[in-house]
Structures are given as structure tokens and as C-alpha cells.
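Thread title: Can someone regenerate the structure for this chain?

I was given the following input by a collaborator and told the matching C-alpha cells would be attached. They weren't. Posting the sequence so someone can regenerate them.
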Amino acid sequence: MGQESITNESEELNKKDKLDAILSLFGSDAARDAFINTCKEYVAARKISLPGPDGENYSDRPKRYSPPQRAHLHNSIMDTLSRLAIQSKDLSPIQRDIFREMHDRNNAGEIIRAYVVAQEGKEDDEDIDEKQRRRGKMSDIAHFHSLGKEH
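Best answer:
Regenerated them for you:
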């Protein structure tokens, strides 16, 4: 199997399945559960620090900076992922590809968020918030018409 077909296979996985593939590498349920709990804390901190519908967030700095608690949690997650990738002896090619993808902090954050949201069985709040930000204070009908659609 060539690298291109492996990459295609890993791209076909949804974000939850990608993190499931990585979680299968943990040596114990306790370690895996501790990592998942850190991921849940990170998603909760991320939700609090993202801009609200009015565009305000925890500071006026550009979005490249994270609040300290969120940054600490993300750093902890990235450190755990790095150690897991190095210590795992029998990585499948797909798992290697997922680790490469998760090496990017933004990709890792999105995969983790999607996993936690799926685990909780909720609709993705960030997607809802993003739709509301784009929509502004328009009513449903005004928004519908702004999309160029008619009844």
C-alpha cells in the first residue's frame, strides 16, 4: 500500500474515528480516560475563550493567542500525543498519518473538539456559534433571503 493510498484512507476517516485510532494506542484504560478528560477540559476552555456572537473574546489580542488555561491544556495534549507517537512500537500506517495530521495544533484541536462533541452526543456548539456570527442579528427570513433563495 503506497503512502498516497494510506493518506486517502486516513482522510476518509471522520475526526472522531481519527482520535479513536490514536486512543487505541494507550496502554491502560486509566491513561486513556485521563487523556480524554484533559480533552474535555480543553474543549470546555476553548468554548469559553472563543469570541461570542458580538465578536468579543477574553482579550483584544489577535486570535493567535490562547488564554493561559486553554494553552496549558492544549500543550499537555500535544505533549501526550508526541510521547505516544514516539513510544508506540506498532503504529499502523494510518495511525502514523493521523499523528502527522495532528502535529498541526489547529488540526489537533479540531479533531479533539469533534471527538468530545460526538462523545457527548450534542450538536457542535462552535458550528452553531459560527453560523450565528456570520448571520449577525438577521431574522431567519432575512437570512434566508440574503442567501439569494426564495420561498
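The longest helix spans residues 29-49.
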